[in-house]
Each structure stands twice: as C-alpha cells, then as structure tokens.
Amino acid sequence: MSGVAHVLFAGGGAAGHLDPGLSVADHLAKRLPQSMISFAGTGSPAEKHTVRGAGYQYLTIPSRPAPQNPLQAVRFVTDNIAGYCAARWMLREQKISLVVGLGGTTSTAVLRAADARGIPFILLEQNAIPGRTTRWLSRTSALVCAAFDDVRPHLHVQAPVTVTGNPTRPAFEQLYDKLQKNGYRNNNPSGDGSENGGPASPTKRLVVLDGAEGARSLNESIPAALKQLKNYLSGWQIVHQTGDGQLQETENRYRQCGVEALAVTYIDEIASLLFTSDLVVCRSEGATLAELSLAGVPALLVPHPQAADDHQIANAKVFSSAGACRLVDETSQIGALDTALACELKTLLADGQLREEMRLQIRQQAHPQASSDIAEAIGNVLYDSCAERLAA
Fold this sequence. Notes:
This protein is α/β, with parallel strands linked by helices. The chain has helices at 15-31, 45-53, 73-93, 105-117, 132-137, 170-181, 217-227, 247-257, 270-275, 286-295, 311-321, 337-350, 352-363, 370-391; strands at residues 6-11, 36-41, 57-60, 98-103, 121-125, 143-146, 161-163, 204-209, 236-241, 262-264, 279-282, 299-301, 325-327. The strands form two sheets. It has a seven-stranded parallel beta sheet with strand order 3-2-1-4-5-6-7, with helices on both faces. A six-stranded parallel beta sheet has the order 10-9-8-11-12-13.
C-alpha cells in the first residue's frame, strides 16, 4: 500500500461509542504503525481529552441528536447541515483514506460525506437491531462489522456483513488474555479459589451499574428491591455505580431501606471489579454485554426503556435466550419495578448453581478478538482500495 493511510474514526458523544473505537485504533496502530489515525466527534471536553490522551488527533464536527420538541427542530437541521458540510471539507483537507463509523450524530454526518466523496467506510454496529445510519448506508459500505448475527434481516440484502462481536476496553482484553494464559477458563470468584490460585472467598459481590442519561430507574428501584431480600443478602457485598448527580440520592435510599451498600459515582477499575464479581444488574448496551462476556459474570439485564428502536431489549433477548442472563423489561411491567427486580434477584442471589450455569453461557458469547479482527478488516479494505486506485 503506497503512501500513508489516514483512518478516521467518526462518532462518540457517549463512552459506549468512543471506547470501542479507541480499542480498535490501538490494534490498528500496532498493525499499521505508519498509518495516521484521527477521531471526529462532538467536541465535548471529556471526549476531546480522552482521545488526545490516547495519542490521537481529535477533530470537531457540528452535530445534534434528533429533536425532543419543536423548538429544537431548527437547530437540529442547521447544525447537522453544517456538520455535513464541515465533514466534506475535512475529509478532503485531511486526506482521509477510510472512515470507521462508531455511531452517534457525528458519525452520520461524516459517513454521509464520505459516501458522497467516494471514500470507503466501515460501519461498527454494536446492537442486534442496527441504527438508522447503518440501515441507510449498509449497502454502499465496504463492510459492516456486527456484534450480532441478528442484524442481517434489518440490512440490505447486498450489505457486506461480518460478525466480529463488539470491541471492549483494553483492560478487559488484557485481563481475559491473562486469565486464559494461566489456564483459568471459568472464573468463579466466590468459589474455592483453586482455579486462579487464590484463597477461598466467603464474600460474594453484586454490582449495580446505572446512571444512563435520562434513565434513573435502577438507582431508584434497586435499593427498594434489595430491602425485600434482606434475608438473602448475608455474605454479599453490594457495589452500586450511580452516575453523575445521583450519588447522594442513591445513598439516602439505601440508608432508608436499611441495606448496606457502597455507592459510587463512577468505577474507575471496572474491569478488575467485574472479573471478580458474582452478579451484575445493568442495562444492555452492546458494549456492556461484550465486557460482561469477557468477564464471565452473570447478569440481570434491565434494558433502557427509551433506547432507539428498542435495541437494548433485542440485545438482552439474545443473551437471555442463550441462558447467559435474566431479563426484566420495564416497559412490560404491570406492577412496581422493584417488585419485578426482587423476584428475579431472589433466585439469582440464592442459587449459586444457576449463577455458575449462566457464567458458563455468557462466556460462550464472548468475542475476545473483536478489536483485532476489526483492525485486520480495516487493513484489508485499505489494501483493496489502494489496489483499485492503482488499477484504475
């Protein structure tokens, strides 16, 4: 491949979009050390800091999500038109060789501009029901790297699809690889410790992950659910990630319910925690499920009720049908959510054999080579694109 390839990862706006891109970029940099790698996003300070801290160039493209009310409609149109125009100019000025779409409004603007300019692009689809941009552009994409085989019926019949699984954060890959090299196939943190050479641990750990923007139902309902299960909590440690602005309220709920729990805004060492946990209650974004699979931790999934096209419910059904997780659908609950959660948690807390069976099944859903496989696919598309230009 002659010249220096410049790969642009377009997306972000949420960690679930950005983190998989960073993981793939790290593998791509090792595979093609002479290539240039950049990211395009919304320009949020946190996102910009994360990307630059990882050593990559960051480019801001105006974009705005779908309006929630008529007053936002004008800004939605003007910002996204501006984003498309800015993306067309940026693709030319930066001499972009290939675009990788990560999801989000910035991804849509850049991918449409790449399609218009004839620049090859790859779509990373994290969910069982693909997003609108993936549906719109799948036919003209160089490749759709899908997390689930279930996406195929939703895409154009001629769309080039390969199931790679979802990329995970490097810490999850590293821990998974380390445990595999040590011959540790089935982490069982509450077992006798023989598999990983550790001592017996009488304490089991339940981790609750909430804090998604616009959805606080787990923060509100889990303390009340656990209050109903006090007789089942002996020997369990509860760690609850609340998200920004919800810590004090959640702590107060646990205190009022008389349940001892460690509530934190954000868990920095989430990989280490999940690899040594016995049960998780969380949403069902594709990236989250991929990391649970590598960690081998059974979960009670509570899909985000406002997720676009109900993609979180579709994700959760894939895992629950495989026996890897249990599912509580907020949208179909007749009674209080805490009662439904308590009903499922009662069995999961009490039945260690069930958790072990779920642990084995969720490990079967893991794609530990996802980031590496996608990086290889990017290299192949770059090579093919270069060959086509030389033959023209």
